Amino acid sequence: MKDSPALSTLVRAASAYYRGAGFFARQFARGKLGGDPVFAAILADGLLHGCRSLLDLGCGQALLATWLLAAQRCHGAMSRWPAAWPAPPALAAYRGIEINPREAARARHALRQDGVLSLQIVEDDIRNVDYGTADAAVILDVLHYIEHRAQERVLERVSSALPRGGLLLLRVGDCAAGLRTLYGQAVDRTVALARRGRWPTFQYRSLQDWRALLARCGFGSSPLPMSQGTRFANVLFVARRA
Q1: Strand order in the sheet with 53-57
Q2: pTM: predicted TM-score of the whole model, two decimal places
Q3: Are 91 and 114 in contact (CB under 8 A)?
Q4: Which of 10, 25, 129, 210 is the most exposed place for a label (fewest CB within 10 A)?
Q5: Looking at domain 5-241, which CATH architecture does it have?
């Protein structure tokens, strides 16, 4: 899938949102969207099918938003849209929350080009800010940055923001995957050190503990491996609010 014409077209279309946001923003978008399997999986597996309003916690420079916007634009025009892929979600509203001011600025730059949807970037801490309501929520590689009790509180508040049957996509690292776990944790620390200027402490859980936590917060969940083609040991929990 990584080398498919459809995926290459989508990566170019989504990266174009960062034109004028600086060399790093656009190159990072190209590399991340083309190399991280979660973005292709969201479309290929229809994980956000039917979603009209999306809450994106720790959204960074809003890669998921630009990816979905590009998919909406390309679906009708792309002659090579994969036959096995469902139509992309027809988003009407997106709310991204990001604590890093530089990332939030890049996100706002990217989304200012699209005046069709209700697009909002909130520069704040996901532990404190109002989530509003949404059909679905996405948290990719974020919760291990905050303490265990705060992780639980965030998931409780996400549950409250979603309707019954509402979807949560939560990606976490498998802390029992040996060398791949160590590699992922080393990358986490290096990135956090570069962004924050200090050596961070992360709060990891086992996959069993994540699933139990989701259940306590009102979600039924199933895990999907989500690090294909990479050195990481990531798992995406597809969770539904009971």
Answers
A1: 118-123, 93-98, 53-57, 136-140, 167-173, 234-241, 219-225
A2: 0.91
A3: no
A4: 129
A5: 3-Layer(aba) Sandwich (3.40)
